[in-house]
Every structure is written in C-alpha cells, then in structure tokens.
C-alpha cells in the first residue's frame, strides 16, 4: 500500500464529499483514526493571509508533518484539500518535502478540484502515490450512494423515503449523510416525515440547471429552478445565466477551440472549455439571440414588476431556454 494518495475531483459538493470519504478510508487502512488526521484547506488566491517562510500560514503545519520520523510506529496523517489553489512556490516546497518524507511515518492525501499543481503532481507520482478520480455525482449516483450507505447503517428506507431524501438533498451527499446520522437508530421514517424534518434543500451547483437546459429536459430544469429559488433571488440566477450565455455566444463565434479558450481566459485542454465548446456547437446563432432577448426581458420584469410575477417569469424563461439550448428550435 502506498503512503500517499492523490484524489482529483471533477466538480460538485457530492464529488467533494466522496473525495473526503475516499481519503478517510485510505487513512483507516493505515490504522489512523479520523480524529488524528490533520485537515488543511488551501486558502483561495485572493484571500488575505500571513506567510510563514515559503508557505502561507494555513499550510505551515504541513512542514513538520511531512518531516516526521517514525520512532514508535506513530504516523502523521495529513489531508490537504483544494490543492489546486496552491501557489507555485508552495507546490515546489511541498514537492521537496515529499521527496524526503519517510513513507513509514507519513500518510498524505492530496485532494484537488481539477488538476494538481504540476510540481506536486510529479512529486506524488515519483513517490509512488496511488491516484483516484472522483467524477461528477449525478442523481443516479446519489441514489446508489444512498442505498449503499443506508444498508451499511442498517437504516430501513422504503422507496418513497429514499425518493424524499433525494428530492430534499439532491447530490449534496454531505448534507444527506448528516441527515442519515440523525435518522439512524430511530424508526423507519416516512417520506412526509423526511420532507417535514429537512425542509431546506442545500444549494446545488448552478451548472446542474444549465445541464438540464442543454438536454432539453424542461421538467428537470423547472425542478432545479424551484430548488434554486428556495435559497436565492432570481436575479442571482439571471446573472449566472448571462455569464453562461456570453460563453455560449463566444463559442459559436470562435473559429476554433483554441481561439475560444483565449477569449474566455482558459486553455483548450481545460475540462470546462472543452465542455462549453462541444455543447454550444449545436446551438444556432438565432437561438442565442432569442435567449439574449428573453434574458433582457426577464431582467426588466424582475426589476420592475411585482414579486408575484417573478417565479412565473423564470419558469417561462426556463422552458424557452430548454428549447433553444438543446437545438430543438
């Protein structure tokens, strides 16, 4: 068994939860208790912080942990989250420490959303690190996870109760796991009890909404819309849609993916760039113009009309976008 593990996450809260679950299973196999794991979140690049030598202060505990020496069989276990936010100098420092780390004394799991910084990824590979990739958690995967986790807990859930949990929590596995913690040990809950007890559905990534639009699935898109409006104002969603529509318009106008990547400030090899490029090519310029006009009208309505009209405005917009984005128009 390797002493190091690299976990790459596509996107979404469900995938991030599975990444942490994978990490703790790795530590458990090494005989490390969850409570003994040092969790470190790499701060965002724009976040103000102090520096300790060559790393930001939040990362400073990593240095003595990776320099640990096994004297009495003790293991220093570190879970490094959001490693994609490491700065170049920090990645180089960690790579150097990793090269000299005692594999008998250290267990390190590095979780990145997307690509791990090149220097650190190379050092992990050289150290013989195992590697896992956690893909985007879809509704079907969330249903499978729920069935397995409930069985492992010995929690009896009928089909209606499972459907209610998925309706309330969607692909947010962390929140669903917390709900199962509360239900564990009690009588089998009914669907109505679940909906009553866990009313607020946690935020889900907005790309799930646009994904339904791309598929022309207005039923799912409308359900996603209702979930979004529980937690946020329709103008927030409209702002997201305007940014998304801008990328689509650029993709249709660009002669090739390299040009498109340059226009949006990305790389042609990036997952999001390739996804936006491929999904937009089937959308006509006419459909995008119609979508732009509809967004402008919706924006005026939300800013000038009574609040009673906001939901119906967004519902009509959702149905129309599902037609235009899917290429059915």
Task: Please describe the structure with a list of short key phrases separated by commas or semicolons.
329 residues, alpha/beta, Rossmann fold, Zinc Finger, Delta Prime, domain 3, 3 domains, 5-stranded parallel β-sheet, two-stranded antiparallel sheet, 7 strands
Polypeptide structure, described:
There is one protein chain. The protein has 329 residues and is of the alpha/beta class. It has three domains: 4-134, 3-Layer(aba) Sandwich (Rossmann fold), CATH 3.40.50; 139-197; 207-325, Zinc Finger, Delta Prime, domain 3, CATH 1.20.272.10. The protein contains 15 helices and seven strands. It has helices at residues 13-29, 62-66, 88-99, 118-126, 139-153, 159-169, 173-183, 191-197, 207-214, 218-231, 234-253, 257-264, 271-280, 285-304, 310-325, and strands spanning 4-9, 38-41, 51-52, 55-56, 76-81, 106-113, 130-134. Strands 2-5-6-1-7 form a five-stranded parallel β-sheet, with helices on both faces. Helix 3 (88-99) packs parallel to helix 4, helix 6 runs parallel beside helix 8 (191-197) and helix 11 (234-253) runs antiparallel to helix 14. It is globular, with a radius of gyration of 23 Å. The N and C termini lie far apart (54 Å).
CATH homologous superfamily of the largest domain, by name? P-loop containing nucleotide triphosphate hydrolases
Give the total of beta strands: 7
Strand content: 5-15%
Helix-strand pattern, N to C? EHEEEHEHEHEHHHHHHHHHHH
């Amino acid at each position: 068994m390797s002493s190091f593990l690299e976990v790459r996450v596509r996107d979404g809260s469900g995938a991030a939860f599975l990444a942490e679950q994978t990490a703790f299973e790795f530590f458990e196999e090494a005989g490390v208790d969850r409570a003994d794991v040092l969790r470190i979140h790499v701060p965002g690049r724009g976040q103000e912080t102090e520096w300790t030598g060559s790393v930001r202060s939040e990362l400073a505990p990593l240095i003595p942990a990776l320099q640990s020496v096994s004297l009495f069989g003790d293991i220093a276990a570190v879970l490094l989250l959001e490693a994609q936010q490491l700065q170049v100098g920090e990645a180089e420092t960690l790579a150097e420490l990793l090269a000299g780390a005692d594999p008998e004394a250290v267990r390190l799991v590095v979780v990145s959303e997307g690509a791990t910084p090149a220097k650190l990824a190379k050092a992990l590979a050289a150290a013989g690190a195992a590697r896992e990739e956690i893909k985007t958690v879809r509704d079907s995967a969330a249903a499978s996870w729920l069935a397995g986790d409930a069985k492992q807990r010995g929690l009896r859930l009928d089909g209606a109760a499972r459907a209610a949990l998925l309706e309330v929590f969607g692909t947010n596995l962390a929140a669903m796991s917390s709900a199962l913690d509360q239900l564990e040990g009690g009588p089998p809950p009914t669907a109505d009890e679940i909906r009553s007890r866990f009313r607020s559905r946690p935020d889900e990534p907005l790309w799930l909404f646009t994904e339904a639009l791309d598929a022309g699935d207005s039923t799912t898109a409308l359900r996603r819309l209702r979930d979004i409006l529980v937690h946020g104002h329709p103008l927030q969603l409209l702002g997201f849609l305007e940014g998304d529509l801008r990328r689509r318009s650029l993709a249709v106008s660009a002669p090739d993916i390299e040009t498109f990547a340059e226009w949006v400030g990305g790389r042609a090899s990036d997952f999001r760039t390739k996804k936006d490029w491929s999904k937009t090519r089937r959308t006509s310029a006419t459909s995008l113009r119609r979508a732009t006009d509809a967004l402008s009208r919706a924006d005026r309505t939300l800013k000038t009309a009574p609040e009673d009209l906001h939901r119906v405005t967004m519902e009509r917009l959702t149905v129309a976008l599902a037609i235009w984005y899917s290429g059915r128009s």
